[in-house]
Amino acid sequence: MSQQTKIQNPETQVPKTPQMSDRDFINDVLATEKYMTASYSYAMNEASHEQLYKDINAICNETQDCQRELFNVMFKKGWYSFDAASQQQLDQSYQQFSGYSSQFPYS
After folding, report:
1. Pfam families, per this entry (predicted)?
2. 13 secondary structure, DSSP code
3. Which 3 state secondary structure label does DSSP give 7?
4. Which of 3, 30, 55, 86 yields a CA-CA distance of 20 to 30 A from 45?
5. What is the pLDDT along the chain (107 residues), one digit of tens a residue?
6. Which is nearest to 33 in space by CA: 58, 68, 80?
7. What is the distance between the terminal CA atoms of the chain, rounded to a whole angstrom?
8. How many Å apart are CA 50 and CA 85, to the nearest integer?
């Protein structure tokens, strides 16, 4: 079995103490931003007033932008990593999901 290749920047070290580090704070804020964007999505689905919908949508977009910026900071500091997918994994996923398009109501 082949070993997974990590996609990651060099990790910025933080002190290992009982106090929250910069990494802990950013991770906490990132989790909060993710929760907030999901909650704004629910609020938009339930908004019956057009201006309220537009206001929530604008706030949601700003929150998503902030979430993305936090993710980018964490990735640059090496606190987020990814496993690179092999061509075989990509082909398997493509085969698995390509048949679903026939189930769409519109072509």
Report:
1. Coat_F
2. P
3. strand
4. 30
5. 456 788 999 999 998 999 999 999 999 999 999 999 999 999 999 999 999 999 999 999 999 999 999 999 999 999 988 889 889 999 999 988 888 877 888 76
6. 68
7. 39
8. 43
